[in-house]
Amino acid sequence: MDKNYNHKDSETKIYTEWENSGVFTPLAGDDVAKTGRKTFTIIMPPPNANDPLHVGHAMFVTIEDIFVRFHRMKGEAVLWLPGTDHAGIETQFVFEKKLTKRGKSRFDFDRETLYQMIWDYVHENSGVAIDQMKRLGASADWSRYKFTLDPEIVKEVKKNFFKLHEEGLVYRSVKLVNYCTKCGTAYSELEVDHEDKEDKLYMIRYGQIVVATTRPETMLGDVAVAVNPEDLRYKHLIGQKVILPLVGREIPIVGDSMVDMEFGTGAVKITPAHDNNDWEVAVRQGWNMDEIVRDHQIIGTNGKMTKNAGKYEGLSVAEAREKVASDLGEALLETKPYLHSVGTCYRCHRAIEPLPMKQFFVKVKTLADKALAALDSGETVILGSGHDKILRHWLTNLRDWNISRQIVWGIRMPVWYKTQNDDYVVSETSPGDGWVQETDTFDTWFSSGQWPVVTLETGKPGDFEAFYPTTVMETAYDILPFWVMRMMMLGIYMTGKSPFKTVYLHGLVRDEQGRKMSKSIGNVINPLELVEKYGADSLRMALVMSTTAGQDSNTGENKVRGMRNFANKIWNAGRYVQDLKTSITQELKAGNNERDDDFRMKIQEVRQELTRLLEENRVGLAAEYVYNEFWHWFCDVQIEENKQGKISDEVLKDGFKSFLVMLHPFVPFVTEAVWKEVYSNQKLLISEKW
Ligand SMILES: [Zn+2]
């Protein structure tokens, strides 16, 4: 063996050997069922197809690979199903930035051309993420790889949309949606960030009553003033009318218990077309919502005032706010500074504009209730401090899910309209002449929410039956509501079973000082550079050591460099053990050494404890444990005792073999390399029994 371990020479070679051995690929589900073997399944969270990996991806690859290597060695039929995501808005957004650099915009191209351009762009880059996952050692079954826009996946996603529609769980309706006028699309409530903002509170006199608002420009679309019916100051005014300043329209004063008596003056203006609470007040009042939208929507999807805003038409929202405030004259009694939380676009951070649009919604109540029941019964368990509670909170308070997106990059909705009216049908193909297809695409999460089901259903024969429900869903906690929650809701709806037994949530990877990694601080680490420099094993070990489900962890180049010492430690121990082979004098001592029994017992104990930790998915503790036992017990003490003849060579060699097996899931490359050197006639370590 060489004096030092050289990861550069061995990693790619070893990976190819693993891949060629077929060990990543379990039998087709049908054949697995015949063997009666226990299955272990992880569906990989699909990274964006066009992005190189960041350190968060390296984290999930490491943790999942440790799980699958461990269970594979235990003799289970292991499927780790990889894929990539078209990532609708994210990708279109990145592509549009490139267009801007070339002086173009998405509006310069027709739909088909734009789609094709993004398709080409994504496919040019889509090999990168896969190659990088391989560099990290991901022992995934690439023969079952899926992309979210594969034709068979798209077909399944549409099929499930048809089913939801047929059963009344998808409907089309005019509602307020969270619209970003910059990005030009609606979002679900999950994609809206909330930021504290210093604004002004305007006190405006409407006849006999004073209202408080942060958005005076929306008064042009007011249809009422609301007070709390319990409010003794205003109770007697309910049913009376006031004249809307500037506009001159007569509007009623209504009672609604949602009005907070403590806020402002306790009287609020009601603008249903531009505020979610006001919309609900109007629905409760039984007003005609179509008319309200037709006559009182005063802001358009372009972020400008509409013709309903009269002389303010064409102004931006900010311009209109200033103009209205100055036009109000004496009716504007007072303005004061006001700190409040504003919904902003998670992509571009502009203020989100609630706008009425006709869109498709998923009725979430029944779906969410079943997901809650799966948590209650323990059918699905969430690992990660407090995230179970967060998920329950989301599931309990969810509004109907808007799944229409005004972008081209995604699955175009299989919905058709007669051009002359508003009737629609849902269907795979056009119902006939004169029908045009919906231009919106599905929310990305609508298709990725079906991921465990559709990837297995379109896999090899019997895959769904053999591998569903999956064993572990391992992903970052920040996509718990976007993804994990939707997979539970849709998975249970489609199959009657929650798609996974355990959800393992990993935290953010922060820098060595615990700061968030960001371009502006300049502390972002590139996982592939570190692999290049220190080897994949070193990065894997640095990421996983002492990580805890649901909690953030710190990693940086120093930590990775430190872990290279560990890989070298394993290599050097291998050299020592290999040299024992030729030592004749040592063999004479075999069988009568004082410490051999203790040594064997200790190896048993380590294996038991490590197995327990891994079975309980405590992967960070497991890494720490086996690291310490190998370094500080085996290398520091036992090798020394062997040198003194207290432990026989055979026993030490056996112990080392056991350690290579136990270390393999964590540091697969160096252990495989040492295994080849020391036990050259044997099969690959990856296929060795635990
Ligand atoms: Zn935006």
UniProtKB/TrEMBL annotation:
One of its GO terms (biological process) is valyl-tRNA aminoacylation. It is an enzyme of class 6 (ligase). It catalyses: tRNA(Val) + L-valine + ATP = L-valyl-tRNA(Val) + AMP + diphosphate. InterPro entries: aa-tRNA-synth_I_CS, aa-tRNA-synth_Ia, Anticodon_Ia_Val, M/V/L/I-tRNA-synth_anticd-bd, Rossmann-like_a/b/a_fold, tRNAsynth_Ia_anticodon-bd, Val/Leu/Ile-tRNA-synth_edit, Valyl-tRNA_ligase. CDD domains: Anticodon_Ia_Val, ValRS_core. Residues 599-690 form the Methionyl/Valyl/Leucyl/Isoleucyl-tRNA synthetase anticodon-binding domain. GO terms for molecular function: aminoacyl-tRNA deacylase activity; ATP binding; valine-tRNA ligase activity. The keyword Transferase does not apply. Keywords: Aminoacyl-tRNA synthetase, ATP-binding, Cytoplasm, Ligase, Nucleotide-binding, Protein biosynthesis. Residues 13-427, 434-554 form the Aminoacyl-tRNA synthetase class Ia domain. Belongs to the class-I aminoacyl-tRNA synthetase family. NCBIfam families: PRK05729.1 (NF004349), valS (TIGR00422). This is Valine--tRNA ligase.
